[in-house]
Write a structure and sequence with these properties.
Length: 197
């Protein structure tokens, strides 16, 4: 990478880091050009050069953290020998992620992310295909072996991720009525029962 490319990559990283901090501090309404340039120390021209717009920056930020979450989930199931162990690993990994990265998790579970996801579902899925493929392969492999009921991948995804995402959203919304440690103990078995043949 040339020095110019290195500086460009560092500028983009500063903008992404600043965008998450501004979002965490001020919410979606606080993510403005002025707030972003002030927090990052990057010029308006650089913001537009690298991301095209504030929405482009926020979409890149969503993709960054979605990719990281999906990568951790894929790695967790790949290390599991059984389907049941994979469900346990998915639950624990997801809940650990929201504890370790609360600001990014709030963004990933926000109404902003929902709107982007609804408007650009296919593009988001295509952009994350490399990270989604191991999860889909895990489902296929365990369905073919008979460990998981013969359901299609989207149905398995709904049965597994639905309770985890609902728990995460509840916790991230500021309600203190969800004990993530207890959820990590209870959810895997409950989810597993929904998948058994």
């Amino acid at each position: 990478m040339s020095p110019k490319q290195q500086r460009g990559a560092e500028t983009a990283e500063r903008l992404l880091d600043a965008a998450l901090q501004v979002y965490a501090d001020s919410g979606e309404q606080g993510v403005t050009v002025s707030a972003l340039t002030k927090a990052s120390g990057v010029s308006l021209g650089s913001l537009y050069h690298h991301f095209g717009s504030v929405d482009g920056l926020m979409n890149a930020l969503l993709l960054r953290w979605l990719g990281r979450l999906l990568g951790e989930l894929a790695a967790a199931v790949e290390r599991s020998r059984t389907a049941r162990g994979g469900v346990r690993a998915l639950v624990r990994t997801y809940l650990a992620f929201i504890q370790e990265h609360p600001d990014a998790s709030r963004l990933l579970h926000s109404s902003y992310a929902d709107r982007v996801g609804m408007a650009h579902a296919k593009q988001l899925r295509d952009a994350q295909e490399a990270r989604l493929s191991p999860l889909a392969e895990w489902v296929r492999r365990h369905t073919e072996s008979g460990e998981i009921a013969p359901l299609d991948v989207p149905m398995v995804e709904a049965l597994v991720m639905g309770p985890i995402v609902a728990t995460a959203r509840r916790r991230l919304s500021g309600l203190d009525d969800v004990d993530l440690g207890r959820a990590a103990r209870v959810l895997p078995e409950r989810i597993w029962r929904s998948l058994t043949p």
